[in-house]
Amino acid sequence: MLNPENATSPKFRDFTVLYNEATFAIAYDNTEKIILMRWNGETKEDNSYPMGRANTPFWFRVQKKLAKPILIMLLTQEKANTNKVLEIFKTYSK
User: How sure is the predictor about 80, in pLDDT bands with cuts at 50, 70 and 90?
Assistant: First the structure.
């Protein structure tokens, strides 16, 4: 199982993990100001998804129109970084 903080790629290096529970993670790219998602994998041997060439872990970007609903949903999740989620939500509400 991949720790989402270690899922850096050339495209997404400066991100904050907003939610991490077992096999799934959601993050916020601090540079591009977008929501990112990935599956962490289920076992230590699992490569997780998505992965690039040479098993480089990647995030996939979420369409901006889905950001607010995802952020609202995260506010109800126990494992979410709610302070950061609220901070980001304010930027989407402007």
Answer: very high
Q: Which one-letter amino acid corresponds to residue 81?
A: N
Number of folded domains that form the chain: 1
Query: pTM of whole model > 0.90?
Result: no
Q: Which residue is listed with tokens 């995260």?
A: 74
- By residue count, the chain amounts to 94
Q: Is 36 helix (H, G, I), strand (E, B) or coil?
A: strand
DSSP reduced 3-state for 18: strand
How far is the C-alpha of 37 from the C-alpha of 58, rounded, in Å? 9
Domain span at residue 13?
4-92
d(CA 72, CA 86): 9
